[in-house]
Design brief:
eight-stranded mixed beta sheet; 303 residues; two-stranded parallel sheet
């Protein structure tokens, strides 16, 4: 029976992975989340499922994480943040936690231990050949608006790549949309401006399974959305979202530096401020600092 671990199980991508994989009785899932109550609320079916084992705690608990990972074939690493702030290190800390747990298993685990494949959520903006397909203004906006997050993900990637005993696949989508599965194909060169969360989840599973699990190891892979409407087929909306994030980041509006009141409500985050009074920054822009370029769901702290 294939065994998969999902780290970041209550985030948008992790949740879609659960929805897709829990329907497959031949697969056993190991879910790692910080909140058992949130996990049960989002996915009631996992509570009584015989094919699901849950672990609740911080990724820094290496013994607990090692217990979660010791028998799995694949680790879906979807832990991330949408806060583009100096010192961002969520992806790198998650990578260190995973490696520490795997090293513990290599040293003290069963003799039969085989290192699982890590499928890590990344971004097409961090893949040179994919980024080259994006208009230059889009590349520039992305680099400036999301610099701290991209730096974090890049460092986490390089950390994994420096450990050749860990099989690594980089899932590198473009912008993410809430909506139904529309179909996808996998590409090493041509990104899709948009892809739905369900399609991303299914694409990550396919990356882990193609060629007996070996086809995409060591590669960056983009899920290319099929049957998109005309607006979703081009990069222009991403540039608009990115400009809003760029303006917000450069004005240092995140973290409580500016207060905007509307109807007696006081917004404590940039996302809330933009929603209360979007004209305060850019007319019609109602997204968070990270926006939707490359992974985004402004309403979630995990992808």
């Amino acid at each position: 029976m294939p065994t998969y671990a999902i780290l970041g199980a209550t985030g948008s991508t992790g949740s879609e992975l659960i929805k897709f994989l829990i329907r497959k009785p031949q697969i056993h899932l190991y879910l790692y989340a910080r909140s058992a109550s949130k996990l049960a609320k989002l996915h009631p079916a996992v509570v009584d499922s015989e094919n699901v084992t849950t672990y609740t705690g911080d990724l820094a608990d290496r013994s607990l994480l090692a217990n979660c990972l010791w028998s799995v074939d694949v680790i879906f690493q979807t832990v991330a943040t949408n806060e583009n702030e100096p010192g961002c290190s969520v992806a790198l800390r998650a990578a260190h936690a995973i490696v520490t747990a795997l090293e513990l298993l290599r040293k003290d685990g069963p003799a039969s231990f085989k290192c699982p494949t890590v499928v890590m959520l990344s971004s097409s903006s961090l893949n040179p050949s994919m980024a080259a397909e994006m208009p230059w203004i889009g590349r520039w906006v992305a680099k400036k608006a999301f610099c701290y997050i991209y730096s974090d993900v890049r460092e986490a990637t390089e950390y994994f790549q420096g450990l050749p005993w860990i099989p690594l696949i980089l899932a590198q989508p473009g912008g993410l949309l809430h909506g139904p599965s529309l179909g996808f194909e996998l590409s090493e060169e041509e990104p899709s401006p948009f892809i739905s969360y369900p399609d991303l989840a299914q694409a990550m599973v396919q990356m882990a399974e193609d060629g007996g699990g070996r086809k995409w190891i060591g590669k960056g892979v983009a899920p290319v959305g099929l049957h998109l409407d005309e607006r979703e087929k081009n990069f222009t909306p991403l540039i608009g979202y990115g400009l809003g994030g760029l303006l917000a980041a450069n004005l240092h509006l995140y973290g409580g530096f500016v207060e905007i009141e509307d109807g007696g409500e006081r917004a404590s985050t940039l996302e809330q401020r933009l929603r209360l009074k979007p004209s305060a920054l850019t007319e019609g822009v109602t997204v968070s600092v990270l926006t939707r370029l490359a992974w985004l769901d402004p309403t979630n702290t995990n992808f």
